[in-house]
Amino acid sequence: MSEEQQPQGKKLPVAWIGAGVAAVAAAGTAVFVLTGQPASPPADPPAPAVASDPADDQTAQIQFGANGQTTPPATPNPGAPVASADGTLAFSDDTISFSAAIPPGPADDPVLTYLRTDALSFFEGYRSNARIDAQERKAQDAPAMPWEVSIAWKYTAKADDIVSLVGTAYEFTGGAHGMTYTDTHIARSGTGEQISVESMLQSGAISPALTIGVCEALKARKLESIGSATIYDEPIVCAGTSANIKIEEAKFALAPSSEPNRFGGLFVYYDPYAVGPYAEGGYALAIPNEVFAHDLRTEFKEFFGGKIDGEPT
């Protein structure tokens, strides 16, 4: 596959991408039961315990499927990711290396619980495919090529009970190069209810004003990056039947504001291949709230104000 081709059949999950849960290591306790049998000759003293690698302590695993429980399961799953002290989840064998980093927070946070659960699903799918790939390589006497998958989530902004996060996933599955995918997650912090940017707008869809704003921002960024406002060598067209900015492939997050408890606008992300060849990489844009303020539904207008404070990363 050439670098100019769009990869097929791979899609980043809605969200991965949870954090704030520390691993709980249960200390083992020996329990002796008196049986009433005749005394036997004293046995040789037990050999000293050999210190084990903390990564082998299965009681330290975080079980995503149990919604972030912090007590070890009755029957530990040796194939589950293990949480480090900073909350990063990791798993590695001879077929795949996986990690997921999520912002710290309470174990019962519904937003982070969603991300934990989704990260497990993401991991399980890749692990299964990595093992199949490893088996096929072995059958063909091809060199082993372990897969690499990593996820990282971070908050972009918070206001009232609404939080916004952006997640990046990197994968290398044996092709010519790795791929990076971006996803976003907006939700109410108390309930975990997901909110889309479209649902914040009166029409229930990305408005023409916001589309034009994204297009103009992309033009400016392209001029800075490659010196040409083009998509695959074609001039960027913002509206009409020839529009080519693929607004449906853009991922939207809420941007922080210069005013407290407000959103200053939107961060918009395009993955590699979406609006240009792989060599260009992805694009991250900032759209001020003034661009789409008139399109907001009444109940969301109060959450926007001020200027965007910071840059999308």
What can you see in these coordinates?
With 313 residues, the protein is an alpha+beta fold. It has two domains: 54-195, Fervidobacterium nodosum Rt17-B1 like (Heat Shock Protein 90), CATH 3.30.565; 198-301, Actin, Chain A, domain 4. The chain has four helices and eleven strands. It has helices spanning 110-139, 197-200, 208-226, 298-301; strands spanning 82-83, 89-92, 96-101, 147-159, 162-172, 179-188, 230-231, 234-235, 251-256, 263-270, 283-288. The protein has a six-stranded mixed beta sheet with strand order 1-2-3-4-5-6, with helices on one face. The chain has a three-stranded antiparallel beta sheet with strand order 9-10-11, covered by helices on one side. The two termini are 29 Å apart. Mean pLDDT is 80; it is low at 1-43 and 45-76.
Q: For the residues shown, what is the average pLDDT?
A: 80
Uncertain segments are: 1-43, 45-76
Q: What's the SSE pattern?
A: EEEHEEEHHEEEEEH
Taken from the alpha-carbon principal axes, the silhouette is: globular
